[in-house]
Structure formats: structure tokens, C-alpha cells
């Protein structure tokens, strides 16, 4: 099972690993696009006004430009520890047992605008690039990633659970992937999209899938696993699961 997580804008500045080595990252068929984007970000960082415009940053966020400028020289840390925020707080890889962490390292990966796919153990630096960014002189990120990332994910040869947000799913849809939508149900039965707590609930699902000793290989078995964990999960027979929560 491969669980695809959304990235976060916020990233830990920590790291004591060797500088970025793109050739050493998993999924080597993505190396060409990774090289193109890393080179483009480093060059762009030398022109702060252009970089701010391309990345949607304010002058007060120039620390992000400094991180991009140092992409090839700054220390790295495993991808699953690089990203921060609500989902990653709930996922809590640092609180896992050794056996749980080993399973998480095998199963988790992050959809990334810069790296395409960052496996949990891939050593990466802090950076700033979002799925909606448009880099000067390059095609859209979707045009760059879709031809190589889509086939790489489809060829994973295992059940893919896609928890990425819509903008990252658009970079490379995965045929047959199981998705999880989060809905809030009011007492009258009407439902609404969960926005504020969506990341928290997906973090809970991600932790469960990362640490379970089970090996679900279909949407049906995944639904059963989540239900046994006490979650209200509905399945219409396709590859989409709906996690239903009572309205606050």
C-alpha cells in the first residue's frame, strides 16, 4: 500500500543530512524534471521581485527565497519529517514505535510540486514551490509532471490511497487510486465539505494506514479497516470512500 500525502507550505528548517542528491532519491524516472525545477528555483531566487511574483510571496517571506537559493547546499532531512502543519502533527511519525515507523517509511510518500513524489525516507531540503506556481520560462507544473509522474504512480504495483489535495492530484492523477473525502453531517441529514478540520482527519487516516499491520489491497478492505478503527466510512462501490463526521 502506498499512501500519498499532501505537502504543506510550512516546512521544518531542521536537518543534518548531506546536501540534496537528486540521483539518490527514490523514483529515479522523475530525476529529469526534478533537475529542471531545482535549477529554475535556484536561478529565480537571485531575482527577488520575480521570485515573489512567481511563488506568491510577500517581501516578509524572503526567508523562503533564501531556502530556494540554497537548495543544493542546505542540509536535508527525511521528507516525512520535513513537512509540518496540522496533518503532519496528527500523523506524528516521531511518536511511532520502531515497528510502526518502519511500516510508515515503506508506505508513506508526499506529493510535491518540486520533487513530484517524495518517499518518506527521501532526504530533502526545505523549499518553497506550490502546485499552482508558474515558473518563468517553463511549462506549467502539470505539463511537466503529468507525463512522468502519472505513469510512475500507476506502475507502483500496489494499492494507492490518494490523500492529496485537488491541486496536487491534478499534477498526476492515479488511475484506480482510492480517495477519501471528508464530509460533515448535520442532524437533518444534509452534508457539507469539511474544510477547517479536513487536514486533521486525513492525518488520522494517514496514521492508521501507516501503522496498521494489515495490508489492504482494495477499497473494500480499506473501508473495513477504517470502520474497525471506529470511523464512519461509506463506500459506493467505486474507489472513493467518504468519511462522515457529525456536525460540530
From TrEMBL:
Task: Please give the superkingdom of this protein's source.
Answer: Bacteria
State the name under which the record lists this protein.
Peroxide stress protein YaaA
Taxonomic lineage is:
Bacteria, Bacillati, Actinomycetota, Actinomycetes, Geodermatophilales
Gene encoding the protein: yaaA
